[in-house]
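Quick one:
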Amino acid sequence: MNRMKKNPGDHRVVTIPGSKSITHRALIAGGLAAGKTVLRNDLRCEDTRHTAHILEAIGVKMERNGDHLVMEGIGENALNQPFEKALYLGNSGTSFRLLLPVLALVKGRFLMTGTPRMRERPMGPLVDALFKLGAEVLYVNNNGRPPIRIVSDGILGGAVALPGDASSQFLSALLLSGPYARKDVDITVKGDLVSKPYVDVTIDVMAAFGVRIKRQGYASFSVSAGQQYQPRDYTVQGDVSSASYFWAGAAITGRTVTTQNIHPQGRQGDIRLLEVLEAMGCVVNRDSDRVSVSGGPLTGVDVDMGAMPDMVPTLAAVALFAEGKTTIRNVGHLRFKESDRLNAVTVEWRKLGARVEEFEDSLVVHGGQRLSGAKVDPHDDHRLAMSLAVVGLKVPGVRIQNPACVNKSFPQFWDLWK
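Output:
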């Protein structure tokens, strides 16, 4: 049961549900393992349901048993698809990218599609890499974006290169499917890799299910063919990204919030937001399975957020109440998320009276402006909606359209927020 409870004084305690990033990866590893896997504290949201449904379409059996999921994985025995199967993935870019190579492992024909926004999201580097690895993957509209057609009889393997400045999910996708290619898969990253911690999460989950990766930092990776995921009992850690909104609430109100089921020593890169909040003036206490944040007078910061882009709207919300300006750098890849987050933050924050400067790959938020309530549009982006909820703690009259968009990653958000 996830719930928030009052404690004496200005202290709140909230238990955070499972990590979305880890749940996606554990579903895939468990689904490709031969035998029974039990996932505990897995996150149930729109995005992870898309991943689960696609795995079921290729033969993975799943049954909910209380607060955990029992899976019967398929190993190398996926259901063959003699006729093309259309698969709808909503606006879950993570599901689309991580599952594209998984479907390429299966003998069959698939058509992957999604929402209008999904059909704007670039897939070129991943599709190019799969083609070089021997998979037949085609764009329906020949524009480098979904819908995508797969006519496959497995992945041959070999060596490919990926651009580091696009999405780390392309790399994670190839790593997750790599053990079942016919030959070793060797991947070279060109340039500096964005969102590095998500690759660490991928490799950790793979290791937990018995698959090892050889790597040289973030420059090259090798997956040996012939490995197989092993079924296991696996517990998903709490979602650091989801916890961030409660930390932000503490930061701007001066209160203390403790988030339980958060492991500060884990691999989730968004945990580094705590360091940013400390630099702004918050007091942070870390324990083995929880984090407490106490707010206070805040000052602006200048920070590279390339490794934790999902935290940019959260930080942009806190920055409104910090003295001076906050500069958020190296986040050009945010333009290809559920919304163009750099532009969406700029537009919606300005409706409240904020002074925000938007650049190609950065934002500058000036704190201390006179803000007032307004109707704001989260652009069907869960992270914008939850960040605007943070702003609403201090600015009366913030009215968020389409609040249900948080179901994409955090269906319990509004109940816990109350």
